Amino acid sequence: MKLEQNSNTSIKSLDDALETIDTVEHCKEENDTGTMHLGSDRDTLGTASVESENIQTAPYIKIIEQPASKAVQFRYRNEDRGISIIPGVNSTRAKKTYPSIQIEGYEGSVAVVVSCVAKDSPYKPHPHQLVGNDFCKYGCYRAKIPPESRKVIFGHLGIQRVKRSEIEEALEMKEKKGVDPYKTGFSHKVTPIDIDMNVVRLCFEVYREGTTKGLFDVPFQPVVSDPIYNKKALSKLVIVDLSSNYCNVEGGKQIILLCDKVPKEDVQVRFFEKQTGWKCQATIKNIHRQVAISFTAPPYHNFDVNDSVPVFVELFRPSNGDISNAFPFVFHPKKSGTKLRREKKYTYDIRDNKTYKEIQTASIEHGEHISNNKS
């Protein structure tokens, strides 16, 4: 760990502090005296930092450098290549930066704890471990910070990937040591299939001394970083197939798109027409296991067409602008009646082979156009 002034700090009493936090929470639930400010404002943290006006005069944690979201590979313990260090979002080859926090509104010594939590609120403890230096223990980073250091830079942290078969064991270890920033519990350990193993957030906790000297058991409100995605899991965007490749110009049809793995929070389904430049984003209803996207087809921009209009569907990744292959799609003229819709599908799929070949050719041309733009 790099501190603004002094990095040779002790972690004395931090083990006891972690276990004491769990005990204090239990007492608060039974007695509810209100004397200890612990769990009440932890429930709904919607941003990665906490503004001072929202918590009045209470000390708080401010994230001043977010981790880079797609620059880290989650590696298993037995991999020979070592850990992949988490860089800061502003890190470059010329100037390296790292995730950093600022401690505001408090001048004394504090204990800092950083752990991995799930991407979605209420931010349950994640089985993946933080590793990288002597301050990492029980899968999290823990260190005592002296009064003269208000800025903490985490310069040697990596994410160690846990196997599916080890999820329950990893979470039980964190449960035993009280590593549960938002007091969500550990019921998710019995359903490991529901845990997304390719994305985590860093949760930053700070504790100050309470009435017992040397015991850091009074917490600030924790904050979470932006999501960190496993770099290796971010495969190229590819549309494999559509459950249906036609729709009425009014849109609204439910369609399932099969694809290679995509992160749920970083993908869009877009319709576009090459000739006119029209583009429209579809409404995604659900993403199943990162490989199937259920969406609603948007309306075409012109309802008064007399012939079928060939367009395309593509996947788009907002974070870095990646675009998938373009898949052919057709908007049919506005007609009513089940019989007419079925007849049109039959005509398009089988009889009108020329139209289908023209769309396929246009799709290839679009793909080459994208490739040329990127090169």
UniProtKB/TrEMBL annotation:
Q: Name one Pfam family in it.
A: RHD_DNA_bind
Classification via SMART domains: IPT
Residue ranges occupied by any RHD domain in the UniProt entry: 56-235
Q: Which residues cross the membrane?
A: none
InterPro entries, per database record: Ig-like_fold (IPR013783), Ig_E-set (IPR014756), IPT_dom (IPR002909), NFkB/Dor (IPR000451), p53-like_TF_DNA-bd_sf (IPR008967), RHD_dimer (IPR032397), RHD_DNA_bind_dom (IPR011539), RHD_DNA_bind_dom_sf (IPR037059)
Q: What name does the UniProt record give this protein?
A: Embryonic polarity protein dorsal-like
Q: What is the lineage of its organism?
A: Eukaryota, Metazoa, Ecdysozoa, Arthropoda, Hexapoda
